Amino acid sequence: MGGLSLGTALALFGGVVLLALALHGWWSMRRAARRASPAAEPAADRVEPSMDGALAAVEAEPAALRQPPRRTPRLDALIDALVPLALDSPISGDMALQHLPPSRRAGGKPFYVEGLDTETGAWETLQPGRRYGELLAGVQLASRGGPLTEIEYSEFVQKVQDYADAVGASTDPPDMLEVVARARELDALASPLDVQLTVTLRTNGVAWSVPFVQQVAARQGLVPGAVHGRMVLPSEEEGAPPVLVLSVDAQAALAAMGDNPQAAAVRQCMLTLDVPQTPATTEPYPAWHLMGKRLADDLDATAVDDHGEAISLHAFAAIGQELDEIYSRLEALGLAAGTAAARRLFS
Description:
The chain has 347 residues and is of the alpha+beta class. The chain has helices at residues 6-11, 16-23, 51-59, 93-98, 150-167, 176-190, 210-219, 250-255, 284-299, 313-332, 340-345; strands at 80-92, 105-106, 109-117, 123-125, 131-140, 142-143, 146-147, 169-171, 196-203, 208-209, 223-224, 230-233, 244-247, 265-266, 268-274, 301-304. It folds into 3 domains: 6-65, no CATH class; 80-187, ZipA, C-terminal FtsZ-binding domain (Cell Division Protein Zipa, Chain: A), CATH 3.30.1400; 195-345, ZipA, C-terminal FtsZ-binding domain (Cell Division Protein Zipa, Chain: A). Strand 6 and strand 7 form a beta hairpin. Helix 2 (16-23) packs parallel to helix 3 (51-59). It starts with 5 loop residues before the first helix and ends with a helix.
C-alpha cells in the first residue's frame, strides 16, 4: 500500500470514472507488480487511485473480509491470520515466553502470540508470572509493503509449529491459499484508503539554514523527531504516532550538526499528515492546513503541490471534504483512523 500526496489527489479528482472501471473486479485479480516498499517504488510505475475510487472499492467489500468479532487485545481477526494453539494443560507465562522465536517476523510481516489467562479469563500479551490455558498466534495479512505472500505464510506456519512443539501444543493452521487470497483482498481494499497528504513549503526568496527551519517549527510546537531532518507534532495520546511531520533534506540536516550548521541550506521543506494513523476526532486535517499556513508565513514560503503549483484555498477545502469520506469509510470497515488495527495495517 502507498499513500497519496496532496498534489496527486488534486490531479486525480477528474479521473473518477476511469478509476472506478479499473477497480471493478479488484477482489478477483492479482496485482501485476509488487512493491518492496512505498519509498522505493518508481514514480513512473505507480498508478494511484483517487479518493473517489477508494469509496467505490469500499462499497464492494468482499464477503471474505467480514470477520468474526474481535476477541484479543492485539491480534485482530480483521487483519491477522489466526492459528490457535491447543494446550493439554495450562503453562506458565515464563515458559511461554522462553520458547518464543527470537524474531517474530515472517518475511516482512510481524506476528504475535497471546495467551488466555486462567485466572482472569482474558486474552493478553504473554506475561511472566501468569498461567495460560490457551495460546493464539497470528500473522498480519497486509501492510504498506503489500499483502502476505505464500513464502511469508509458510515461514510463519513453520515458526508456529516449532513453538507449539516446544510448549506442548497442537495447531491446525488455516489453508495457505485461503489465507493468501484473503491477504490480497485486504490489501486491495485498504490501498485506496491509504492517504498521506504532503504539502511542500518552498522559499519565496533566499535559502534557509536548517537551524532556522527548526527554530521556526519549534515556535509552532514541533519537536525533534527520531530521524534526522524531521520535526513532529506529537499526539496527545501516549505512544501514538505523531500527528504531523515536518521534514527537510536529510543530508542537509546531518551537515547542520557539524561545525558550521549555518552552511547547511535548504529551499523547501515538507509537511505530512498520515491520515490512517490519526483519529478523525482530533481534527488532524485542519491542524495540517493551519500548520502549513503558519509555517509558510513565518518562513516566507509558498505552499505548492507535487508539480510545483501553488495550492489554492479552494483546493484545500476540496481535499478536506474528500478526507471526511475516507474517514467515514475506514470507520465503516472497522479500521477507523487512529485505531490499533489501522495503525498496524497502514504501516
